[in-house]
Amino acid sequence: MKLLEGKTALITGANKGIGRGIAVKFAEHGANIAFSDLFYNEDSVNLEKELGSLGVKAKGYASDASSFSGSEQLINDVNQEFSRIDILVNNAGITRDGLLLRMTEQDWDMVVNVNLKSVFNLTKAIQRDMIKQRFGVIINMSSVVGIEGNGGQSNYAASKAGIIGFTKSIAQELGSRNIRCNAIAPGFIDTEMTAKLPQEIRDSFAKDVPMKRPGTPDDVANVALFLASELSSYVNGQVICVCGGLHT
Ligand code: NAD
Question: Does residue 219's CB lie within 6 angstroms of at least one atom of ligand 1?
């Protein structure tokens, strides 16, 4: 059974990793897909082709999610091309890890702007349309680190904790308009973001996971599909961990 037939989804930071996995999963379930990333490049072209081969409409956009005006422009452009947006996945994210002793103001600002301000930018830009159509699903990508903290990631953890507070607040503001807003908190997922970590840190992360393996973008995409679909029609303001039991 296809769960998102006739819906249109916008996914940020989707050229690769978890965002890409969500785009493919949603397309397999019949959704038309608009996706954005910092650059429109070969990865974007390949993803457009893959999504198109699944029989849905797909288009990639170059858009910096940390830019307020850029996010407004993106929502306008996608609305023009697709007529409406039913599902927004705020997935774009970065790390600039380091102990607070060595963390620069730029490391802080960059992570907070890309990870947290982006969620404000896009949600703000889309809310009027979702209110008008009396339907909307917003999914924000947090992290277990936003719940538990992590030494060496204070900027990242703060941005991901901020996403949880924002998600719960928007769920309360927009729930009566039939707009649901939830967050996913992945644990240790195998993508380029985690491939950058030294092997011994990757090994020790994987060892700490009760399921003894890293997660995959598909593991996260399955939960995003649940949250995007009517299977979760009464789920609002929640944070679902996808972490193999790392955070219990
Ligand atoms: P990734 O680095 O593989 O992909 C992130 C994508 O976001 C990239 O394509 C990148 O170009 C894009 N991006 C970066 N800055 C952007 C901006 N300003 N505007 C638009 N796009 C931008 O990372 P991933 O592992 O797929 O992570 C996706 C999301 O999941 C992030 O929010 C990340 O914090 C979160 N997350 C990941 C893990 C993990 O273990 N991989 C764990 C918890 C949470």
Answer: no
Instruction: Note the CATH architecture for domain 8-239.
Output: 3-Layer(aba) Sandwich (3.40)
Residue 197's pLDDT band (cuts 50, 70, 90): confident
As a whole number of angstroms, the distance between CA 14 and CA 92 comes to 7
Show me where the domains of the chain are located: 8-239
Q: Ligand 1 centre and the CA of 18: distance in Å?
A: 7
Q: Whose CA is nearest to atom 41 of ligand 1?
A: 189
Three-class secondary structure of residue 58 per DSSP: strand
d(CA 228, CA 235): 10
In three state form, how does the secondary structure of 81-143 look? HHCCCCEEEECCCCCCCCCCCCCCHHHHHHHHHHHHHHHHHHHHHHHHHHHHHCCEEEEEECC
What is the position in ligand 1's atom list of the atom closest to the CA of 65? Answer: 19
pTM assigned to the model: 0.98
> Whose alpha carbon is nearest atom 23 of ligand 1?
193
